[in-house]
Write a structure and sequence with these properties.
The chain has one helix at 16-39, and strands at 49-59, 68-78, 90-93, 99-102, 124-126, 133-138. By secondary structure, it is of the alpha+beta class. The chain folds into two domains: 9-78, no CATH class; 85-141, no CATH class. The strands form three sheets. A two-stranded antiparallel sheet has the order 1-2. It is elongated, with a radius of gyration of 28 Å.
Length: 141
């Protein structure tokens, strides 16, 4: 019986590479699910990506009888990202006539800055469809 075995993914880094790959695979599943829970109401997609790359090469050191062969195994995980924040601005000029993109003093959002927000006297936004006061959404007044 030979003391050597044919190289395989399971043997890389004494098995630690495949365990790391499995762990990353599980992490991507969890993160993609969290992403869907957090952003699924506003957006209809998300993605995560796991890449395993193998680079094999050889070299023959000076005065060596045999070449040495190497396998580099790397992983790269791309977790789902928060969706882009789309904000509308108005093309206006400041008091000195310098052109710029302007938003309401409370900040920008995915609605025209020319459209005001319905809010209570203390700055809590009111949902225009239901009339509910939105506890976590304030407007600077």
């Amino acid at each position: 019986m030979s003391r050597y075995e044919l190289s395989s993914i399971e043997k890389l880094d004494e098995g630690r590479f495949i365990e790391r790959l499995k762990g990353l695979y599980r992490q991507l599943q969890e993160e993609l699910r969290k992403h869907e829970i957090a952003y699924g109401q506003q957006h209809n997609k998300g993605q995560a990506k796991l890449t395993a790359e193998f680079r094999m090469y050889w070299e023959r050191p000076k005065n060596a009888a045999n070449s040495l062969f190497y396998v580099e195994a790397t992983t790269k995980a791309a977790l789902p990202q928060a969706p882009p924040a789309l904000n509308m601005c108005l093309p206006l000029e400041d008091d000195n006539g310098v052109p710029g993109l302007f938003v309401q003093s409370s900040g920008s959002r995915n609605e025209s800055p020319a459209q005001g927000r319905l809010c209570t006297d203390d700055g809590q936004t009111i949902d225009t469809e239901t009339g509910e006061v939105l506890e976590n959404d304030h407007v600077a007044v």
